[in-house]
């Protein structure tokens, strides 16, 4: 994963709550077996409306998506996070996130930032009034700064470490190989095991 | 210290824990399907890594699979995913139930029916409805593709223990009110983010009285109110369901397992962050009117005045006006299927309503059994004949129109009564409109041609 420290850029205000992953990337685009190339299908159905916020030229090139509560609820498709990242966003700011989306985003280096509803509202209004407004999201200091207003945000300390260093968490886990082996040796024998080939019955 | 059920199982699966870090949790079972796994296998191979415990992994084809016409009916890119899964499983030595296999089916239906889903386990899958397996008293949750890769490589996951939430339901469910109505009623009350990130334990006499099928329906929709995990403590109902299944323990192993499983309950005095209490007697059959599973009302109700902008947009999408009676909503399609409601008990309940009846001439209806085993058992009981005689299409197992990633989709503007779990915009096909309900309610709607109260429509079938 690419390391994440600090991002500065414009905001795109998506003023909707409960944006589910089926809206972020509809299922007809989940058939690819590659990890990239999902950007053009981001919010596919909503984007058919020429007035949809991400279609407006003034928000082209925005790197911070600002959205309503419970963003990314619904399915586990990591494709949702991929498509947002692929479309050029590095950060999503919302009052709350769907649980699995939140994890997926962290795993790929798309920073989900939780801010209080009033702060999100203010950012949304600012970005609506002045699309050229830039904000800075700093993971090291855990702050969002826009129009001279500074907001602190909380983030899981472990996830933050991983992001700041761009760590591959599989490598991190494999450092605990001994503990895993010891755990495996003590697992109860009744637990199921499925050989690749089905036994002849 | 008294512990909750979740905490007990969690504690048994911690490989390593350290101050300030999430726990490293061991996964007893990893279920894999074609949509969320190809990139994980690819990345694993690129990293020069292998699958650590292929024998703790099971794969099936479900999301993409056509429900008639066999594999040839899958479209080009869809077929690429099926091919990739086959190739990846061969490479890793993972058992796969492909299309045509007698154990193929929706991933959350086949785990339980094989006896693979057992109490006290940690179960993960690249699918949000993994919470279904919690019905057996296991910690089961959905993960994304990066985590799928992590589990393939290490059999472990970094996790912080979610807070515990209790949902207690007491009393007897009224006639015609199913586990589906119970969970829709619950989400109606809590909202779709009411359980966000929590581990939910469903308790109380109503839950105890539910069959395993009903418990699976209930746990399945935990994610629809945002919960990470939804579970029911194992009991005699659980053990009776499991005994003798192909992958359940046998002989002395069964006895040892049983001893352990009997210790899996929440201790008296254990701490929950909050408790939600429901009275079963107050529940009615529920139907959704909007575009998320919380936007629902009892079938006797009306489409409400929109309370916010989201509800306004939902009504516009659904082409519904506030104030109209839910029972006046005419439908074009009926879908009985999905990991929520396509097990044998669901099909029996729907068939009971259809016996001796014909579906409305405008309606196109189909039944898609949750697994090939369910299909075969239903056929052995003659349920297929009941459905077909009523005018339903009888299909092969798969996710089908639950998400329309296969040829089964709604056309724009079509309105569907569906036993699945999500009514998001376009979920069953772009522009399609979904009303979620129980299997008997779906069957009744198929006959009536509009949403209808099954309690009045077919009281003899309940
Ligand atoms: S039936 Fe629907 S919800 Fe269940 S696994 Fe398939 S697509 Fe997902």
Describe this structure in words.
The complex is a heterodimer of chains A (201) and B (462). With 201 residues, chain A is an alpha/beta fold. Chain A is built from seven helices and seven strands, in the order βαβαβαβαβββααα. Chain A has helices spanning 21-24, 79-86, 99-108, 117-129, 157-165, 169-174, 177-185, and strands spanning 6-14, 64-67, 91-94, 111-114, 134-138, 143-146, 149-152. A seven-stranded mixed beta sheet of chain A has the order 4-3-2-1-5-6-7. Chain A is globular, with a radius of gyration of 20 Å. Chain B has three domains: 5-159, Aconitase, domain 3 (2-Layer Sandwich), CATH 3.30.499.10; 164-281, 3-Layer(aba) Sandwich (Aconitase, Domain 2); 285-461, Aconitase, domain 3. Chain B contains 16 helices and 19 strands. Chain B has helices at 5-12, 38-46, 76-92, 107-113, 145-154, 179-190, 205-209, 212-220, 236-242, 251-261, 309-318, 344-354, 372-381, 383-390, 439-448, 454-457, and strands spanning 14-16, 23-26, 29-32, 57-60, 95-97, 122-125, 139-142, 156-159, 164-170, 199-203, 229-231, 274-279, 286-288, 296-298, 333-336, 364-367, 393-394, 415-418, 433-436. A five-stranded parallel beta sheet of chain B has the order 5-4-3-6-7. The longest helix of chain B has 17 residues, at 76-92. The mean pLDDT of chain B is 97. Classes of the chains: A alpha/beta (201), B alpha/beta (462). At the A-B interface, helix 3, helix 6 and helix 7 of A face helix 2, helix 3, helix 5 and helix 10 of B. Bound molecules: iron/sulfur cluster (SF4).
């Amino acid at each position: 994963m690419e390391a994440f420290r600090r991002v500065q850029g414009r905001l795109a205000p998506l003023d909707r709550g409960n944006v589910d992953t089926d809206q972020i990337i509809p299922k007809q685009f989940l058939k690819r077996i590659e990890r990239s190339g999902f950007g053009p299908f981001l919010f596919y159905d909503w984007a058919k409306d020429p007035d949809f916020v991400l279609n407006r030229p003034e928000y082209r090139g925005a790197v911070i998506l600002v959205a309503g509560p419970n963003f990314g609820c619904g399915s586990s498709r990591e494709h949702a996070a991929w498509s947002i990242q692929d479309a050029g966003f590095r950060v999503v700011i919302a009052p709350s996130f769907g649980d699995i989306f939140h994890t997926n985003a962290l795993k790929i280096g798309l920073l989900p930032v939780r801010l209080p509803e009033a702060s999100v509202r203010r950012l949304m209004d600012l970005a609506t009034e002045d699309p050229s407004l830039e904000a800075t999201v700093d993971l090291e200091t855990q702050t969002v700064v826009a129009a001279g207003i500074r907001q602190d945000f909380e983030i899981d300390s472990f996830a933050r470490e991983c992001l700041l260093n761009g760590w591959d968490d599989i490598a991190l886990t494999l450092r605990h190989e001994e503990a895993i082996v010891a755990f495996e040796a003590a697992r109860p024998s009744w637990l199921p095991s499925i050989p690749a080939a089905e036994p002849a019955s | 210290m008294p512990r909750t059920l979740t905490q007990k199982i969690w504690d048994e699966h911690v490989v390593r824990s350290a101050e300030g870090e999430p726990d490293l949790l061991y996964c007893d079972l990893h279920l894999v399907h074609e949509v969320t796994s190809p990139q994980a296998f690819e990345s694993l191979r690129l990293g020069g890594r292998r699958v650590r415990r292929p024998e703790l992994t099971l794969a099936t084809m479900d999301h993409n699979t056509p429900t008639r016409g066999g594999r040839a009916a899958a479209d080009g890119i869809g077929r690429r995913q099926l091919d990739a899964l086959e190739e990846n499983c061969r490479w890793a030595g993972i058992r796969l139930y492909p299309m045509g296999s007698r154990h193929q089916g929706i991933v959350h239906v086949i785990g339980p029916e094989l006896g693979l889903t057992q109490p006290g386990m940690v179960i993960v899958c690249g699918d949000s409805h993994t919470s279904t397996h919690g019905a057996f008293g296991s910690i089961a949750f959905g993960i994304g593709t990066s985590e799928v890769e992590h589990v393939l490589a290490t059999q472990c996951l970094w996790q912080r223990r979610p807070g515990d939430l209790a949902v207690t339901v007491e009393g007897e469910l009224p006639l015609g009110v199913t586990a589906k109505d119970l969970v829709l009623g619950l989400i109606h009350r809590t909202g779709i983010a009411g359980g966000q990130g929590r581990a939910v334990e469903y308790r109380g006499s109503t839950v105890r009285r539910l069959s395993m099928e009903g418990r699976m329906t209930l746990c399945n929709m935990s994610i629809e109110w945002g919960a990470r995990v939804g579970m029911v403590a194992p009991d005699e109902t659980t053990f009776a369901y499991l005994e003798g299944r192909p992958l359940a323990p046998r002989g002395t192993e069964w006895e040892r397992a049983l001893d352990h499983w009997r210790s899996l309950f929440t201790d008296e005095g254990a701490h929950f962050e909050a408790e939600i209490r429901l009275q079963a007697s107050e529940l009615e059959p529920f139907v959704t009117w909007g575009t998320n599973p919380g936007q629902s009302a009892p079938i006797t109700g009306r489409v409400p005045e929109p309370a916010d902008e989201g509800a306004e947009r939902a009504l516009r999408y659904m082409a519904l006006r506030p104030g109209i009676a839910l029972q006046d909503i005419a439908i074009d399609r009926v879908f009985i299927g999905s990991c929520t409601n396509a097990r044998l008990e669901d099909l029996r309940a729907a068939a009971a309503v259809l016996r001796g009846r014909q579906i409305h001439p405008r309606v196109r209806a189909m039944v898609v059994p949750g697994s090939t085993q369910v299909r075969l058992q239903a056929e052995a009981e003659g349920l297929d004949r009941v459905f077909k005689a009523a005018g339903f299409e009888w299909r092969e197992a798969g996710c089908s129109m639950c998400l329309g990633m296969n040829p089964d989709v709604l056309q724009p503007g079509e309105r569907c009564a569906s036993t699945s779990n999500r009514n998001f915009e376009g979920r069953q096909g772009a522009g399609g409109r979904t009303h979620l309900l129980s299997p008997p309610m779906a069957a009744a709607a198929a006959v009536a041609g509009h949403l209808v109260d099954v309690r009045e429509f077919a009281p003899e079938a309940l």
